[in-house]
């Protein structure tokens, strides 16, 4: 007997040694798969429950379990679960009385990061009303577009955004749109102050009957994504998608005892779905900030004992660019969830700030497939595993970058990319992994549908992203198809006889966001000296993603006006100038390759300056930070 026990123990040790040597990610894979199966079972249970169990019900259960637990920390104030619940009841009753909102009525939220954003959304959810989350940076035509495509008849705005609302107020009034301002008073005709009504409303719970017809497939939100061309598209986010996104925190190992730090915009999927919805699903405490501040980041984390943070690639880069301090590792952050960080920044971040588990992920608001890097493998955005691919079928297919279309064989079908080969990610559209599309934009919805992929008649979601799977089953993001870039236009390339200038438009609002080239092109044509603009993205060594560059044609007989171009506002759109961009992209912003005039945006001088070899070398060596 002892001999058998000794042999078994020896075999177990050999097996463990083998797994550690040849399957180093085995335990992480098993833990993630088991966690994912558990979350999948929960979602099925929620789908089948009568009545439907929504994230709102999850929030109300959390109110019942721990009413006094802090839900939101914001600018020195703390709001408990009970307080947020009662405030949302007041907002819901005020909106129902004043605006006559009923189940199914879409409402646009034009609000910055603040607690009012959260309880106003909860109020709408209690009324069964989907919310359109408007980017508070957009103005004029873009604002009207985003508002109208979701079919909303009501817009709720912050007092600090009143000027932006007034710009489009005549059009809103013509369309019969009711405008409410979260303030005590407003003297502008056509805008109703709502705060007084909210203060007077009852904070008692609202009956479930008000949202009796809401189901797992009902629209919960409209979240706007930057298109590769044209204006932002309103991605339809169902309650099923809200649940799936909220599970990401749990999949990354976040617990109800954690404290989550949100400094990303709540109008984005990351801040709202992964951050806020995920916190509700976990029943945890959130530290909410108006906007990201590199200088205050770690102080906030220490003050509130933050254990989980969110990031985009630029976030970690900005943190790594801050002056070094002795107490950099003096914090309790253990998990960072986000996307878009370069490998070198990832490594530098860990060296500077300690052993933080970076959970890099890949996903799209409207997409039906995503990945999470639940290991500590630097640079990967996820891992391939059989459970994931079984429930959410996907593949990488060969893609022709020049033609910007999938490569097809003689039978008209797409060709799978080999392991290690870059390919276009496509996700099979099934009942479990649907693609709902964009509100009010059938054309853009159809453009995302790819048919006859692996067999005739099949249907896949076209992610528009190029990825690579390696031999260890890790997933790497390679590039984005189409005309988007990160940040504002940094250079202008002035075409001779069509002068091509490399200009940067004011970029501070767009850091961390994908920008549609056609939108920026239209902005540039508003400058007095520019008649046409062709905007594209170029890679810059040492920086994430692509940075904007524009080839512009000057008005006949005119000269380039640096100061006037700098002053152009952000984002309008018509989109006219069509020209081949491949050669321009290859040239980038290297003055040695470009014979035309080239300009660089100098933020300190607040104007465009001629691009020189010296500036080019300084950018390449990161002496000049973009």
From TrEMBL:
Which reaction(s) does its UniProt entry say it catalyses?
A: a very long-chain fatty acid + ATP + CoA = a very long-chain fatty acyl-CoA + AMP + diphosphate; tetracosanoate + ATP + CoA = tetracosanoyl-CoA + AMP + diphosphate
Per UniProt, the keywords (alphabetical) are: Ligase, Lipid metabolism, Membrane, Nucleotide-binding, Transmembrane, Transmembrane helix, Transport
Q: Where is the AMP-dependent synthetase/ligase domain?
A: 61-384
The molecular function GO annotations come to: long-chain fatty acid transmembrane transporter activity; long-chain fatty acid-CoA ligase activity; nucleotide binding
What Pfam families does this protein map onto? AMP-binding
Which processes are annotated in GO (biological process)? long-chain fatty acid import into cell
Q: Report the InterPro entries cross-referenced here.
A: AMP-binding_CS, AMP-dep_synth/lig_dom, ANL_N_sf
Q: What cellular component GO annotations does this protein have?
A: endoplasmic reticulum membrane; plasma membrane
PANTHER family, per the entry = LONG-CHAIN FATTY ACID TRANSPORT PROTEIN, LONG-CHAIN FATTY ACID TRANSPORT PROTEIN 2
What family classification does the UniProt entry report for this protein? Belongs to the ATP-dependent AMP-binding enzyme family.
Q: What is this protein called?
A: Long-chain-fatty-acid--CoA ligase
Which organism was this protein described from?
Menidia menidia
């Amino acid at each position: 007997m002892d001999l058998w026990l000794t042999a078994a123990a020896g075999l177990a040790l050999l097996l463990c040694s083998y797994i550690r040597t040849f399957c180093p990610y085995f335990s992480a894979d098993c833990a993630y798969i088991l966690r994912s199966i558990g979350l999948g079972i929960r979602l099925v249970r929620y789908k089948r429950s009568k009545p439907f169990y929504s994230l709102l019900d999850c929030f109300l259960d959390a109110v019942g379990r721990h009413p006094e637990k802090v839900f939101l920390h914001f600018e020195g104030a703390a709001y408990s679960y009970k307080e947020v619940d009662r405030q949302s009841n007041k907002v819901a009753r005020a909106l129902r009385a004043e605006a006559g909102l009923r189940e199914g009525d879409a409402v646009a939220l034009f609000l910055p990061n603040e607690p009012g954003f959260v309880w106003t959304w909860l109020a709408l959810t209690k009324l069964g009303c989907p919310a359109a989350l408007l980017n508070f940076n957009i103005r004029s035509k873009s604002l009207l577009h985003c508002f109208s495509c979701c079919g909303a008849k009501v817009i709720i705005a912050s007092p600090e955004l009143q000027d932006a609302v007034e710009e489009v107020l005549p059009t809103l009034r013509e369309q019969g749109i009711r405008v409410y301002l979260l303030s005590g008073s407003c003297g502008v005709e056509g805008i109703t102050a709502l705060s007084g009504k909210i203060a007077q409303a009852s904070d008692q719970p609202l009956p479930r009957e008000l949202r009796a017809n809401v189901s797992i497939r009902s629209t919960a939100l409209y979240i706007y994504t930057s298109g590769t061309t044209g204006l932002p598209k309103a991605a339809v986010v169902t309650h099923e998608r809200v649940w799936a996104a909220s599970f990401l925190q749990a999949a990354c190992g976040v617990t109800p005892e954690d404290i989550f730090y949100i400094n990303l915009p709540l109008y984005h999927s990351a801040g709202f779905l992964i951050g806020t919805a995920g916190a509700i699903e976990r029943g945890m405490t959130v530290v909410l900030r108006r906007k990201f501040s590199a200088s205050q980041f770690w102080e906030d984390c220490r003050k509130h004992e933050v254990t989980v943070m969110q990031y985009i690639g630029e976030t970690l880069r900005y943190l790594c660019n801050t002056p070094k301090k002795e107490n950099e590792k003096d914090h309790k952050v253990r998990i960072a969830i986000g996307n878009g960080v370069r490998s070198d920044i990832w490594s530098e971040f860990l060296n500077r700030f300690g052993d933080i588990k970076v959970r890099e992920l890949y996903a799209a608001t409207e997409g039906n497939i995503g990945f999470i890097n639940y290991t500590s493998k630097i640079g990967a955005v996820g891992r391939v595993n059989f459970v994931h691919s079984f429930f959410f079928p996907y593949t990488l297919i060969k893609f022709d970058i020049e033609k910007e279309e999938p490569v097809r064989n003689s039978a008209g079908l797409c060709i799978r990319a080999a392991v290690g080969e870059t390919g276009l990610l496509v996700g099979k559209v099934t009942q479990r992994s649907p693609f709902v599309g964009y509100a009010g934009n059938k054309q853009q919805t159809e453009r995302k549908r790819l048919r006859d992929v692996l067999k005739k008649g099949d249907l896949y979601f076209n992610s528009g992203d190029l990825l690579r799977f390696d031999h260890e089953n890790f997933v790497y993001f390679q590039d984005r198809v189409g005309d988007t870039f990160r940040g504002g236009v940094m250079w202008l390339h002035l075409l001779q006889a069509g002068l091509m200038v490399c200009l940067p438009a004011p970029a501070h609002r767009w850091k961390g966001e994908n920008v549609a080239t056609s939108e920026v092109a239209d902005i540039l044509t508003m400058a007095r000296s520019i008649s046409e603009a062709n905007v594209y993205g170029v890679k810059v060594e040492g920086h994430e993603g692509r940075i904007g560059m524009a080839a512009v044609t000057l008005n006949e007989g005119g000269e380039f006006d640096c100061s006037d171009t700098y002053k152009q506002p952000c984002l309008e759109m018509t989109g006219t100038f069509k020209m081949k961009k491949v050669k321009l992209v290859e040239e980038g912003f290297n003055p040695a390759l470009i014979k035309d005039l080239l300009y660089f945006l100098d933020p300190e001088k607040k104007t465009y300056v001629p691009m020189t070899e010296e500036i080019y070398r300084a950018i390449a060596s990161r002496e000049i930070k973009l």
